[in-house]
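lol ok so funny story. i was supposed to be doing the assay writeup but got distracted and ended up predicting the structure for this chain instead. priorities right. anyway since i did it might as well share w the group, maybe its usefull for someone
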Amino acid sequence: MGTSPPACCAPVTGQVLGEAEAVELAETLKALADPARLRLLSLIAASDGGEACACDLIGPVERSQPTVSHHLSTLVDAGFLVREKRGRWAWYRIVPQRLQAICDALCP
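and the output, tada:
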């Protein structure tokens, strides 16, 4: 927590992407290119207060706790979620600016 999400990329329709920009955008999209991760983002966004405990996400996505933790970590590393430890559980919130950056890169 405390780090700002990385800016994403130049709009793909605004200019020709350079190699580094294309790699960065592809890596960012790769983090989203999994049905379980998209469901997790959706579940967290729809949760009361816009946050959810990891313990409440296992059942809805029908994955094991280690698998859900792996997907959540991937989304945190990509800047789409922030994690806050409360006792023995981790709580997650969406980073709206990060999602907006992807929207801006794909649909300027």
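Strands lie at 51-53, 81-86, 89-94. Residues 1-6 have pLDDT under 50 and may be disordered.
back to the writeup now i swear
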